[in-house]
Write a structure and sequence with these properties.
206 residues; alpha+beta; 4-stranded antiparallel β-sheet; 27% helix
């Protein structure tokens, strides 16, 4: 029993023995953190996706717009994680600015300065260096409310009542949890390249 996978990047064909294989296991050590997502039979998949059928696979680096979206989602997550660890009471919002840079603006009286930006940068680099796994979790709306309360995201609780879905998708990283819509890289160690800059309106993350 088995199946065949054709990898478009290097035009190789792999014969898989067994019931399934995880996409990331098709990469060697040098390739592993070069790619951030994949297309399996032209459908976007995370690198932790299980394949159990004949497939054509293309691994995606940052020259691909979908891989960029996955990467940016990871950057947003580790920024929130670092900010929560350093400034647990800080309220802020994240949006896009010019040239798809990520803009973070303060929603309270917290003054953003160069010292704060440098502290967050160092914390993000530490999170990357520790290479924590991202664990996807599906929880009930009631559980989601408790998670939001635990991490101080009371502003998000009201959103749940307007959602038709009865579950919420979270990602857990070390002891931190947050909601992210869409797929992520397998771990924080994939997110080594970024810039974080002080901006007149807040913080720019690239």
């Amino acid at each position: 029993m088995g199946f065949t996978i054709k990898i478009l990047n290097d035009k190789t064909i792999k014969k898989i023995r067994g019931n399934k294989v995880v996409l990331i296991d098709l990469l060697n050590e040098k390739q592993e953190k070069k790619f951030f997502a994949a297309r399996v039979n032209n459908r976007l998949r995370s690198l932790t996706y299980d394949i159990h059928y004949d497939a054509t696979v293309e691994f995606l680096d940052l020259s691909d717009v979908d891989a960029v979206s996955v990467y940016e989602r990871g950057l947003r997550y580790i920024f929130c994680m670092a900010a929560k660890e350093l400034y647990p009471d800080w309220k802020f919002k994240i949006s896009y600015s010019i040239s798809r840079s990520i803009l973070i603006e303060s929603l309270d009286a917290t003054v953003i300065d160069s010292i704060m930006v440098e502290k967050i940068k160092k914390q993000m680099l530490d999170i990357v260096d520790k290479d924590y796994d991202f664990e996807k979790m599906i929880v009930s709306n009631e559980e989601a409310i408790e998670i939001y309360k635990k991490f101080g995201y009371e502003d998000k609780i009201s959103i749940i009542s307007y959602r038709p879905e009865q579950t919420v998708h979270f990602y857990k990283c070390n002891e931190y949890m947050n909601y992210m819509y869409g797929m992520m890289v397998p771990s924080t160690g994939y997110l080594k390249d970024f810039k974080i800059l002080l901006h007149s309106e807040g913080i720019i993350l690239q």
